[in-house]
Amino acid sequence: MRRVTFDLDVLRTFVTGMELGSFAKAAERLGRSTSAASAQLKKLEEQAATPIFRKAGRGLALTEAGETMLGYARRLIELNDEAASAIRDVELEGWVRLGLQEDFGEAVLPEVLGRFARAHPKVRIEARIGRSHELAERVLSGSLDIALAWHDGTALPYSRHVADVHARWIGPAKPVAAGTHDSEALPLVVFEAPCLLRTVATETLDRAGLAWRMAFSSPSLGGIWAAVAAGLGLTIRTDIGLPANVRALAPGALGLPALPKMALHLYQKDAELDPVAARLAEILLQAALETLPEGAVTKQLREVAKYPGRRLSSSSS
User: Fold this and answer.
1) Are the beta carbons of 142 and 269 closer than 8 angstroms?
2) C-alpha span between 290 and 12 (Å, rounded)
3) What is the pLDDT of residues 13-22, one digit of tens each?
């Protein structure tokens, strides 16, 4: 039986295309032409010596062999990237303090901690999940090295704009006995003030001339999700990190006004991060890219994903 050595660049195109639902989008993200991506997929099938794709209507779906290949491809790419970073930063050790906005706690943090700890076991990480204004203040005071949070207008000397994500009206996943919208006032489920998204919701409704009332407030995101799922009212978040018991409403549903995009920033304590914080920032942005909607990310964030071992340049907002 002949030995087969799969091309990691080919596997990266394959995995990226499946995750984005389009190999044309994968080619764009990875800096290749569409024809080059098609040639890579053909090469993959030739190396596998079995069909990876099957026709499904006007598109393509994976065969059973393709599904098996996808799982292994993800593992091979992750191991490759970990090896590259571990070799480059084999002596990294120390302590780094990371902050994440609550939406990213479950969606991003486990992946970030896992990748970083496997590559750099000598580094101690202190992670804090918090609200945007709190994280910005902690970076400004020097009690956090880096933080990923929605930009609320706080002026920080060192930050980078990484994405613009649409805010969405969020309601219960299943119909509930009590309605969440009536002709007099829209019940809102919000964080306790101060809260960026609370302000966005009320100002948007005021501009649209729609009445609203505070139906429920909570200091935690878990409380917000519980109240929305129970039908106490609507809230606004993004599509990131939504639990199964709530859902994003379709644009224009219930006559609700369109919401703005939320700017996602990476805040950093210093203009030039030390090697430990810089490496964690790279892994954080790579994980965020895998979570964010395709059209939301900035060019810089796409570059980080394309070249996962490259140092981030310092920037200021």
Assistant:
1) yes
2) 13
3) 999 888 888 8
